[in-house]
Write a structure and sequence with these properties.
The structure holds 2 protein chains of 2 kinds.
Chain A (H helix, E strand, L loop, with lengths): L2 H21 L5 H5 L6 E3 L4 H10 L10 E2 L22 E2 L1 H8 L11 E3 L12 H6 L5 E4 L9 E3 L4 E7 L5 E8 L3 E7 L8 E5 L5
Antiparallel strand pairs in A: 1-4, 2-3, 5-10, 6-7, 6-10, 7-8, 8-9
Chain B lengths: L1 H30 L24 E3 L1 E6 L8 H7 L8 E8 L4 E7 L2 E7 L12 E5 L24 E5 L7 E5 L4 E5 L6 E5 L3 E2 L4 E9 L5 E10 L3
Classes of the chains: A alpha+beta, B alpha+beta.
Chain lengths: 206, 230
Amino acid sequence: MSRSAVLGIFCLAFTLAAAGTAGAYHTRFVADNCNYAAPTPTSYITRDGSISVALRARYEGYQWAGGCWNHNDRDDSPGDPTENPGTGGEGGDCSGFTFKVWRESENEGNAGFYQWGMFRNVHGPYDTQRFKRGDGAPNITLSKASAIKMDAFSSENHIGMIYAKNADGTDQIIEAKGEAYGTNIWTRTYRGDSSYAGVRRTGWSS
Amino acid sequence: MEGRSFCRLSLSLLLALLLALLSTACESNGSVPTTLMDGSRASPPGIELEEVPDPVVLTKARIVRAEAVPAESLAAACLRGVARAAHPKGSIVERIGANSETVTLRDESGLYACDDSPGPREANRRWCGGAFGQLRDGHLRDPRLSISCKTRDGDLMGFVWIAPGANTQYVAVAQDTFSEVYEAAEDLPIRVATTSDVEIEGSRAAFDVSEHDVSGTLLRRYRLESAVAG
């Protein structure tokens, strides 16, 4: 077989393989690392404790309808196609991240606290619109002026939790922002943005 | 003795026959909806949809213009409720199914849905659920599953948007005991409901869907797996 024929076959094989891959994109992060273990009920959660939970997800990426993450300070599945729950990548989306940090139950009528492991792949029943409305037993709306550390601001399509309040009226928000941004802390003006509402998880011990 | 045994046997047979008849009657009324959620009569579509098994129930759809929303309409209730942040443009589609009522509208920021069912809901709200979906190049990338509504019996229901194909006139969604059919309208995604395959654990739902052209010919069939997200 001539060299050009071999090259042609190779190129064809590569093209076919790439085409197949593009149509079936996925990472193995969820499949290889995550579980569906039951959460641990707890009667005591604090805002500072939840900040510690949230910080473990910092730098860990973003996954639509996710999720689960490790704690290696890097996105192990960067650049996933957006708004695709089937990509199986690392991280939570904004509402899933909030659900997990707030230690909520998948049963909307249950306001109790449930510790979800980092590797437990869970999103919960609330999207951002539902958090904004204060849906579910654990969630209530509140005036943005009253919002403090580990309360959240939610719009129709995004939610972020307060990490700290700045002196100038802005807030440091810890949020799963999007595939291009991952999960991190940014200074935001959500408090003064009319498209955002204040949301609180009920029952903090402190 | 023989006479009494014969009487007992006759009575038992009669009772068994009566029970069988009652069971059949109840089953035929209980498994197939006879009314839609607004109380109107449930009926099949006027044409046969290829490979959609009987019984089939056609949902109702009503178009409302955003600039002239009747005060007592479902659209008005949606704009006072779940979609109060919306500034709708163009057409608003109200849909009534066997166990669902929905409103779909669009504004510059995206799509809004208001979902309702006959079941219980938090704080006795007008709408038991809803959704917002951003449009990317005019299209939804995610069907925006909501699982906050319940049936009369308290079972979870799932609602999603389906974006019908270019030639699709009818979308059929398999339910437990019948097929529910929606007509395409105004180039808006169709908000559909299911009372089966909804999982609280995982916050997921699956919909068995078929799409048909104006003559009922099957265009495509698929299973839509959806998860609460965003």
